Every structure is written in C-alpha cells, then in structure tokens.
Amino acid sequence: MKSPLLGKTLEELQDVATELGMPRFTAKQMAQWIYEKNIADINDMTNISKAYREKLSDNYIIGRSAPIEAQESKDGTVKYLFQTLDGKFVETVYIPEKERATLCVSTQVGCKMNCMFCHTGKQGFHGNLTVADILNQIFTANSIHGDLTNIVYMGQGEPLDNYDNVLKSIKLLEAEYGWAWSPKRITVSTVGLKKTLEKFINECDCHLAVSLHFPLHEQRLQYMPAEKQFNIEEIVNLLSQYDWSHQRRLSFEYTMFEGVNDSTLFAKQLVALLHHLDCRVNLIRYHKIPDVELNEVPMAKMTAFRDYLTKHGVYTTIRTSRGQDIEAACGLLSTKKTNQE
Q1: What residues are labeled active site?
Q2: What secondary structure letter does DSSP report for 264?
Q3: Residue 289: CB partners within 8 Å, gap ≥ 6?
Q4: Which of 29, 195, 213, 264 is deepest in the core (most CB within 10 A)?
Q5: pLDDT, tens only, 41-63
Q6: Helical spans, DSSP H, in 123-243
C-alpha cells in the first residue's frame, strides 16, 4: 500500500523529495498543497512538474478520502463515517453553533478502556489511527463545511493511548505550514493514563478534558476499568501541580446516570475532590446504548446538581445534547457498518 503524504512534517516531505530525486524546495510546495490548499490528489499540485508528480503518484497518495456515510440531525449536527487507510471504520461529528463549529474526531478503532457506558468500548480494540487517518477527518470535514473553529479529540478511542500519532496531528495543525492554529482551539479528552498524561501536559498546550464520571475510586473502578491503573485521586494530585488559570483550560466530563451518580452526595464528593483546582465540570446527558442498564437523568435534577456544584465553588455547565436523532452515542454507526461487512 502506498504511503500517505498527509501527516508528514515539512522535514519528512523534504526526505520524500530527496528520495525521489526532486529539489528540496518542492517539500514546501507539497506542504502548501496538502495543508493549506487541502487537495486530495497529487495531480492537483500544479506548480510541481508533471514528471515529479508522476514520481510522487507512483510511490505515494495524499491520504484524503471522503466519508462513506453521513447522517444529519435536525439541529445541524452531522455524523460522518470514515474508512481508514486499512479498511476499518470510525466516526466523526461536526457540531455547528452560533459563533463556532466544532469537530469531534476519533483516534482509535474501538478502544481498550472498556468503560461500561461507552459503545465504542464494547467494540474491543482494533488498532490506532494513523496521523493521516486523524487528519483526514479534520481536513475533509473542513473542505465540506469550511468553517471549523475548534477540534475536540473526544470521538472513538482513548487519545492518550495513541499518544504519538495524536500529538503529531496536533503539531501539524499548529505548524506555520499547517493551519497555524492556536492550541486554545483544540481539546484532548482522556480517562487519565498514567504513562502519558504527565507527558501530554508537559509537551502540549491544548486544553485537557478528563473523563471523570465518578468521584470515588471504588465506583469509578466498577464502571471504568482504567481506574485500576491510575486512580482519580492520583490524577487530581498530578493535575494540581500545574497552573490552569491562564493559557489552557482544565475540565472534567461527568456523564450523569439516573440513580447511580446523580445525588447530592455525589455532588458533595465532587466538591471535595476538585475544590482546590482551577477547573470546570461539564455535566453530560447519557445517550442510551444497547445492552446497558443505565438511564438518563431528568434535566431538573441535572440543573440542581449543577447549581449545587457552582454554589460550592466548582464552576459547572450542562453540555447541550446534540444529534440525538442520528445515533448520537459514539460507536453506534461504525458498529452497524462493521457488522454489515
């Protein structure tokens, strides 16, 4: 299989040029076509000679591909199904709002974390996405909509379990020859992986969102097996060593389940856990998935929970549910497609 040019740094594109006997300056031309002009075909590199384009085409592809399926919600949210370079399937969600347009991207096919309430975890783990697979979601969605303002690595998979490829994709978005994006426009979500969380904080300036969901070790372990390796108190202790007050935002994702983690007792435990951190809590409505006996919480109860946290010094918002009419939960569309193959 030919290697993709999408996902290569300028230095790596210079190596490609050298390998094929092309002038090194063509690397800058390639980068401009790939990252700035967002092309999908090598033959569109019109300021590179036809002979060199043929050499490139004999050995490489751009690595861009259109989604194979799309579902559009009545609220404007669009869920895309992409096929990876090795023939698997992942989901990407475009979320338009008044003054911003956010893309939620996937980083793995399936997931090792196996959180009880996550449909992607039920798929098992089938591989890391390449840098090209990650960027294809972003560049293709932007070519369709043209208005992306923010990217969240919150789709299928655990981003910090595919650390090198996720970080490289971010660095390419930030690069001057890429999109020259500020890290403030990018958020990475994680359950909290011991081997890479500290590394990520030190090497990347993007916002961080921790999938918390349960404030106590014993209960979090019951629903989120990753808690066994790196418990929530250790995560919070690590995060408390950093300054979150200025350039980057720290948030905690808290999906609410009726009769499980929605009482005032849990709100009190969250305050005790997080009160010393400069952070926010995002309360998330649960999207029902097959074969899991968990239910969503009424909005009135979520509002009371939010108000308690805010009153006690933990800034809290309720995330607006989007795309509920298009199989909104991560993993449902890709599972259906995989089962059809």
Answers
A1: 91, 330
A2: H
A3: 117, 118, 119, 122, 329, 331, 332
A4: 213
A5: 999 999 999 999 999 999 999 99
A6: 131-145, 163-174, 194-203, 217-223, 232-239
